[in-house]
Write a structure and sequence with these properties.
This protein has 8 helices and 5 strands, in the order αββαααβααβαβα. It is α/β, with parallel strands linked by helices and 199 residues long. The strands form 2 sheets. A 3-stranded parallel sheet has the order 4-3-5, sandwiched between helices. It has a two-stranded antiparallel sheet with strand order 1-2.
């Protein structure tokens, strides 16, 4: 008989709401989350509309009690915020998390920060801290480390299907007995790469 897999918690941070409840309300009341770009410096800000989470990085740092100088990308920050809601929703303790794993999906990883500072790396050594947090694997580890996940930690990147594949990967790991408790999902920050690509 196949192993029964259950979902015990959810967390969402999106352009239509900062929680599962806010997202549900927006969806059931047909509230749009498409707007002008505010958090990415781009020449397209006045003529492209996007689904953008309006909280600034500074607001996210404050919410997560992070110092102003850190190496977290916006993708990591948004992922942590959603993960905290899922953990609270599932009533997971720090002991539970130490035995849990994270299957995290992303397409741009920490690209938002490397785009911002790429041309300044040569002259401003302190900014080079973002180089190591560019890749998706490092974003996943930042998120896992922040909440104390100690089990299997891995990343999935298959463009728009990334989060669905993270969930499928988690299900396969659970079904085959390679994990008992996994958190699966995805996070992506808007970046010039994405905006220019879709433009």
């Amino acid at each position: 008989m196949p192993k029964k897999i259950v979902i015990t918690g959810m967390g969402i941070n999106s352009s239509i709401g900062n929680t599962v409840g806010e997202n549900f309300y927006a969806l059931t009341h047909r509230q749009a989350g498409i707007s002008r770009i505010e958090n990415v410096a781009t020449i397209h800000a006045d003529h492209i509309k996007v689904g953008e989470i309006k909280r600034t990085n500074a607001e996210l740092f404050a919410a997560l009690q992070l110092p102003e100088v850190n190496a977290y990308s916006r993708t990591s920050l948004l992922g942590i915020i959603a993960l905290q809601e899922a953990i609270a929703n599932a009533k997971l303790t720090s002991k539970d998390l130490s035995h849990s794993g994270l299957i995290m999906a992303s397409t741009v990883g920490g690209m938002d920060m490397t785009e911002n500072y790429f041309f300044r790396y040569g002259d401003e050594e302190p900014l080079r801290r973002y180089i190591t947090t560019h890749n998706i694997g490092e974003v996943t580890h930042q998120i896992a480390d922040y909440v104390g996940i100690k089990g299997v930690v891995t990343s999935v990147s298959t463009a728009c299907s990334s989060s669905a594949n993270a969930i499928i990967t988690a299900i396969n790991l659970l079904r085959t007995g390679r994990a008992n408790c996994l958190i699966a999902g995805g996070a992506d920050a808007l970046s010039k790469f994405t905006i220019n690509g879709f433009n």
